[in-house]
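Aim 2 progress update. The chain analyzed this quarter is reproduced below.
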Amino acid sequence: MTPFGSRLGVSDGVEARSNCVSTCLRLEFSYVDPESGEIRVGKTSPDTQGFECAGVTYQCVEYARRWWIRNLGLTFGDVPTAADIFGLEEGLKLPGRTPVPLGRSLNGAAKRAPRRGDLVIYAPDPGDAEWRFGHVAVVVEVDLDQGWVALAEENYDNRPWRDPDVYARRVHLFAVGGRFTLVDVQPGATRNPEGGRIAGWVYPLTMR
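Predicted structure tokens:
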């Protein structure tokens, strides 16, 4: 556990900070200027025309939006939980919020491997307070030969990133019969008592 707001790492210019524990919720929001990259935090938008709301500060959805805004020039609409991102059919190109179709790959059945910029979506578990809303992380590196995907994120375990200048952690990737599976276990490990079940990954269709 790390103190609320402490720096965990940065990936592609997008800083991640600690939420202390995954069940903590502080109702302040991050707002991003897509043109300058400026970030402001508050209860209301500083400029409804110029700033995009990324979400509740230091939550996983907020980080995913900020990463997409900065690196892809995209955002996505409101979702009740991180798990609901898996059902989105379109993102929004900035500026202008032009609709962009999204694709999704079902974990274990996917013929398309995860790629940089994809959003890895964890399934919700209503019986587990840590996982009742699922989780989302951004793919920042993929190594098909070694069988891993590197993720950037907030509010997974709120520990300093394994590589604080690149990624938070790596998870195991393998393929059977040309279909890809991600498992929430570090490469080389066989179990993760704190891990969750990955539903799949989401990505823009017209920008790849």
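The mean pLDDT is 94. The chain has one domain: 7-204. These observations will guide the mutagenesis experiments scheduled for the next reporting period.
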